[in-house]
TrEMBL record:
Keywords: Endoplasmic reticulum, Glycoprotein, GPI-anchor biosynthesis, Membrane, Transferase, Transmembrane, Transmembrane helix. This is GPI ethanolamine phosphate transferase 3. Pathway: Glycolipid biosynthesis; glycosylphosphatidylinositol-anchor biosynthesis. It comes from the Eukaryota. The keyword Isomerase does not apply. The gene is PIGO. SUPFAM superfamilies: Alkaline phosphatase-like. Belongs to the PIGG/PIGN/PIGO family. PIGO subfamily.
Length: 772
């Protein structure tokens, strides 16, 4: 019944068994002797009078007495009426090489799974955690933004910088989450229809009154904010003129302070007095800059009145004191009302009415040399949230008013739409300050018209001068930034620089003969505006393209099957507990998933005198201190493979021995033996490799669930008030921790495999020595 391997050859022959194994028949089939052992052989080890038999899954290894090689019992068949197990021994030469290939396959598969996770993290990060390089260069009056003479009218004026100041002081009222339609009156959809009645419409009546009575003194704009529409990022944009992202790669990871050039620092450098009152976020962004400050806690979004009432207590007395050059009041009631009730709640109407009274009181106290700016940093959704890039979130109101005539033209039919960062270069030149170095906003040219001069040529020249200064500053920034980073589009950058060179040459030529060149000035103005708008579009494409990428690769990796057969299995609760212990150790050692909580002092452990100019060594020390728990638990994870053996009963076990001719049908217990425990790893080396793969996939799966949960939380809560302060940093720490853990796991499994190979070689030599 049993098929022979070969037909009685005289010399050793070879047979392909199909598993990629080529075996040699020992001294020909005529010398093969069947070994009879009961069916329990598959689960136990039995002794035979000529050697020891080990079951290894794809065959059996038979260690022959006096023989120096491993022998595989690869041919199995059933004979006789009582179905004894018959195994024919043949020499196995490729078993060690096969074991090595299995180990390499396990490592390569784990590396591939890790790559899928990395790709998913990178895909999500590229759309959510916007990044750019942060420059610390500062503009100054002593360094013009480019070659050429200063604009006409600025030479010889007291306190003049790049351009003569038009206002001595400014009042900046920041109403958090002042959506553009909050400043709109109630309107009907068609003639004869009643006006639409919404709680937030028509509550800023005083704005509409000023616009109708004094159209040359006031303007209402629809200000477009760049996502992310969170307060901290919007404050950075409103003071630096750039596109702040979540990660402004620079030197300020230890705090939230703005180190880029900004309006507040320019005012302080010029000796101007800046007084602030309101949201205490400004305290972290501009530490020690304000000449006087009244900070109020902003965390409690259910509190609609504490911050606003605190501001009102100090606002009017401060204005009357005249001990200020810039007064900033940051109201939070509208934003908190949106978070608590939504924009359609009656409480929103009350808050907007209160803000309307505040604006009226400020207008009545303004002097001729003071500019009033009322702006919302962002809008809000229909549910009162913000943080994303929907139309309602990026649309904010911007209102400008001056006691003196400011605008030569009549009020437009519809408010003009302007990017929010355009306010930064506009205020800088109106106040006679240098434009912040990293600004990419465009001056609002309408504010630089010469109202008292009826000749359109004068206004056009003034607008062209302001735009040219603005363009020179932006061109200088691009040149500096592109030399330090490579994330801008080279082709587009060259096109824009060529456009600026042409516009600048045309402007300089017109300065030589300004009379009668109004059409040429309008052409220059258009070219400069095209350059500035092209730069902003390029930077948005490179830095702030806000998109939520679906984690397809991440989910694919998380869904990989991790069920493998074999006798060695680490239970899920053990793997989960091991991963949770790594997280618990992270917190118990004093770490938190926020940047200010990083233990920066770890960079100097062992190096009290510093590291000189080296940066990689302190970075390595800080990283090792922060993610030590992730690394240690990941490297030690393969030791969990001993879990089933440690859980084995410590009592005696029965060992079975065949009894002569009756061994074909029955067995009896002979003696007691101690549990084999981890020595069972020697019985099934390929199962051991499979168990390592299974354990590694389980650990990666648990870690992947954690990082996936953080990514989903950051995505779902991207409009939450604390998304960039809590959820996004948590995601970054989890992502870095996952990378560190996966690398540590790979190294730990490779180390265990290396040790297993050495132990297997020693064990084989030991058994062979005992058989002799």
């Amino acid at each position: 019944m049993c098929k022979s391997l070969c037909s009685t050859p005289k010399d050793p022959d070879s047979v392909d068994l199909g598993w990629g194994l080529e075996i040699s028949i020992l001294n020909g089939c005529s010398r093969l002797m069947p070994i009879i052992c009961g069916p329990h052989l598959q689960k136990h080890r039995c002794n035979w009078w000529r050697g020891t038999l080990h079951w290894v899954g794809y065959g059996a290894v038979y260690l022959l007495e006096g023989f120096q090689e491993e022998v595989i019992l690869a041919w199995l068949c059933i004979e006789g009426p009582e179905n004894p197990l018959v195994l024919y021994p043949t020499v196995m030469n490729s078993l060690p090489a096969t074991s090595r290939m299995q180990k390499i396959s396990v490592l390569l598969f784990l590396a591939w799974v890790g790559f899928l996770f990395y790709a998913g993290i990178a895909l999500f990060t590229s759309g959510f955690l916007l990044t750019r390089l942060e420059l610390t260069n500062h503009s100054s009056c002593q360094e013009p933004p480019g070659p050429g003479s200063l604009p006409w009218g600025s030479q010889g004026k007291p306190g003049a910088c790049w351009m003569a100041s038009r206002f001595s002081r400014v009042v900046l009222v920041l109403i958090d989450a002042l959506r553009f339609d909050f400043a709109q009156p109630q309107r009907s959809h068609g003639p004869g229809e009643p006006p639409v009645s919404l709680p937030f419409l028509g509550k800023l009546d005083y704005l509409q009154t000023i616009l109708e009575i004094q159209p040359h003194h006031a303007r209402l704009y629809q200000s477009k904010a760049d996502p992310p529409t969170t307060t901290m990022q919007r404050l950075k944009a409103l003071t630096t003129g750039s596109l702040p992202t979540f990660i402004d790669a620079g030197s300020n990871f230890a705090s939230y302070a703005i180190v880029e050039d900004n309006l507040i620092k320019q005012l302080a450098s010029a000796g101007r007095r800046v007084v602030f009152m309101g949201d205490d976020t400004w305290k972290d962004l501009f530490p020690g800059v304000f000449s006087q400050a009244f900070f109020f806690p902003s965390f409690n979004v259910r509190d609609l009145h504490t911050v606003d009432n605190g501001i009102l207590e100090h606002l009017y007395p401060t204005m009357d004191s005249s001990e200020w050059d810039m007064l900033i009041a940051h109201f939070l009631g509208v934003d908190h009302c949106g978070h608590k009730h939504g924009p359609h709640h009656p409480e929103m109407a009350k808050k907007l009415s209160q803000m309307d009274q505040v604006i009226q009181g400020l207008v009545e106290r303004l002097e001729n040399d003071t500019l009033l700016v009322v702006i919302g940093d962002h809008g809000m959704t229909m549910t009162g949230d913000h943080g994303g890039d929907s139309e309602l979130e990026i649309s904010a109101a911007l209102f400008l008013y001056s006691p003196t005539a400011l605008f030569p033209s009549a009020l437009p039919q519809e408010p003009e739409i302007v990017p929010q960062i355009n306010l930064v270069p506009t205020l800088a030149l109106l106040l006679g300050l240098p434009i912040p170095f990293g600004n990419i906003g465009e001056v609002m040219v309408e504010l630089f018209s010469v109202v008292e001069d009826p000749q359109p040529h004068s206004s056009a020249l003034a607008q062209a001068s302001a735009l040219h200064l603005n363009a020179q500053q932006v061109s200088r920034f691009l040149h500096t930034y592109s030399a330090a980073a490579q994330d801008l589009q080279i082709k587009e950058l060259h096109r824009l620089q060529n456009l600026f060179s042409k516009a600048s040459a045309d402007y300089q030529r017109l300065l030589q003969s300004p009379q009668g060149a109004e059409a040429a000035l309008q052409t220059v103005i258009t070219e400069l505006q095209q350059f500035l708008r092209g730069v902003r579009a390029m930077c948005i494409e490179s830095w702030a393209r806000f998109s939520l990428s679906f984690l397809l690769l991440h989910l694919l990796a998380a869904g990989i099957s991790i069920t493998t057969p074999g006798p060695f299995t680490v239970p899920w609760q053990a793997v989960s507990a091991w991963a949770l212990m790594a997280t618990q150790t992270f917190y118990s050692t004093g770490h938190q998933p926020v940047f200010p909580a990083i233990h920066w002092h770890a960079a100097f452990v062992g190096f009290p005198e510093g590291h000189g100019s080296s940066t990689w060594l302190p970075a390595l020390l800080v990283g090792a201190n922060t993610f030590a728990s992730h690394l240690l638990f990941a490297v030690g994870c393969p030791l969990l493979l001993l879990w089933p053996f440690l859980c084995e009963s410590q009592g005696p076990r029965k060992r079975w021995q065949p009894l002569g001719s009756e061994a074909e049908s029955r067995v009896r217990p002979e003696e007691e033996e101690e549990p084999l425990m981890e020595m069972r790893l020697r019985d099934a080396p390929h199962h051991f490799n499979a168990a390592l793969l299974q354990l590694g996939l389980k650990y990666l799966f648990v870690l992947g669930i954690q990082i996936l949960a953080c990514a989903l939380a950051a995505s779902i809560l991207r409009r939450h008030l604390m998304v960039w302060k809590v959820f996004a940093p948590k995601f970054i720490f989890e992502a870095v921790g996952f990378i560190v853990s996966s690398v540590g796991l790979f190294l730990g499994i490779a180390l265990v495999m290396r040790v297993d190979g050495a132990v297997s070689s020693w064990f084989r030599q030991l058994v062979l020595a005992q058989q002799r």
